[in-house]
Design a protein that fits this description.
Length: about 350
């Protein structure tokens, strides 16, 4: 919103900085952090009063969680989303279609997660929104977003899949790309959701992946850098770096309260929204496959659940002591901080590998 003030830069030269995405990204990060840090205690207090017993803890999960996490309020994703939205509306170019597409998915997935959290808290059960209904609504929102992205992108890139390491290869999926893109967005949302099981485990890898895609969006949206790196230039996507900055700031503010022992949990409200946002940015920037690398930790968490379920149904045996895989390592004797910090390290390494694909062409 504030970007329009740059029109007065001839009179007030200082306002010219608002034309620069890098400046607005930095300011969005600062705004997101300060908003969540300032209003966080009030939001947590309100959630604690309204939720009473807090998030219900699964009886079939790690037994230590029944003691250490019982009574902790959930829906902390509202803090992140509030900081993200306020910061984005202040610092992003609101005439950019990609900004609104990403916000639509983020808010839509956040609403689904909020309803799921609401059902769990009010019923004091880990069973919330019907899985099939939830996936159907997520798929509808994601499909609409992919169609909007296809109409916003240049014709040469719409409905095409770009492959990392290969500079000139574009695979034309036609309108099947809508289904593919929706799968990426829904998959990302639910993968982050599965990762959110320990204090600080999900938010830091989300911020790492977001920082990576903020950098990718800035490069992809800049014709000079895109040409130099021999990646596909997608006009307008550079503005998504501002949203990424807003999320990083809001995420840092949330981490202040989510650090062990957590004062509040992100809940499905946050995890679904943030994962959906990452997936949408990946589709918009034509880096869907790179998301699987940068967000490899989320892929691993989701894969562990799929493997566990399939193995148990087919053979009656479990591959892991407990799924998602972070609980498996808890059962092996790793402490919660060990699991969290080691998974953070994995997230950093995977992000570096994913960013390396920008130059290896």
């Amino acid at each position: 919103m504030l970007v329009w003030l740059s029109e007065f830069s001839d009179t007030f030269g200082l306002l010219n900085v608002l034309r620069y995405i890098t400046f607005r990204t930095g300011m969005a990060t600062a705004t997101g952090f300060l908003f969540v840090f300032w209003f966080g205690p009030s939001i947590i207090a309100a959630l604690r009063v309204r939720q009473g017993k807090g998030q219900p803890i699964r009886e079939d999960g790690p037994q230590s969680h029944l003691l250490t996490k019982r009574g902790t309020p959930t829906m902390g994703g509202l803090m992140i989303l509030a900081g993200l939205i306020v910061s984005t509306l202040l610092w992003a170019d609101l005439e950019n279609a990609y900004v609104w597409i990403v916000l639509m998915v983020t808010v839509g997935f956040g609403a689904i997660g909020f309803y799921d959290d609401y059902l769990k808290v009010t019923k004091q059960s880990h069973k919330g929104f019907s899985g099939r209904s939830r996936l159907a609504i997520e798929g509808l929102i994601a499909g609409v977003a992919v169609v909007a992205i296809a109409y916003t992108a240049t014709p040469a890139l719409a409905n095409h899949l770009a492959l990392p390491f290969l500079k000139d290869v574009l695979i034309n999926f036609g309108w099947f790309f809508v289904a593919f893109g929706a799968l990426v967005i829904v998959g990302a949302g639910n993968a982050v959701n599965l990762t959110d099981g320990l204090d600080g485990l999900a938010i830091v890898p989300v911020m790492i992946a977001t920082a990576s895609f903020g950098f990718i969006a800035y490069l992809v949206g800049n014709a000079i850098f895109a040409n130099y790196l021999q990646i596909h230039f997608v006009p307008g996507t550079g503005e998504l770096a501002v949203i990424c900055g807003a999320l990083i700031g809001a995420g840092l503010g949330f981490l202040w309260f989510n650090a062990p022992p957590a004062q509040v949990f992100m809940g499905d409200t946050g995890s679904l929204a943030l994962g959906g946002m990452l997936g949408t940015i990946a589709v918009a920037t034509k880096h869907e496959i790179v998301l699987a690398i940068v967000g490899g930790l989320f892929v691993l968490e989701a894969a562990s659940v799929i493997i566990q379920v399939v193995s148990f149904k087919l053979t009656g045996r479990r591959v892991f002591k407990m799924a998602p895989i972070h609980h498996h390592f808890e059962q092996l004797g790793w402490t919660e901080p060990q699991v969290v910090i080691r998974f953070w390290i994995i997230a950093v390494v995977l992000a570096m590998v994913g960013l390396a694909t920008l130059k290896l062409r």
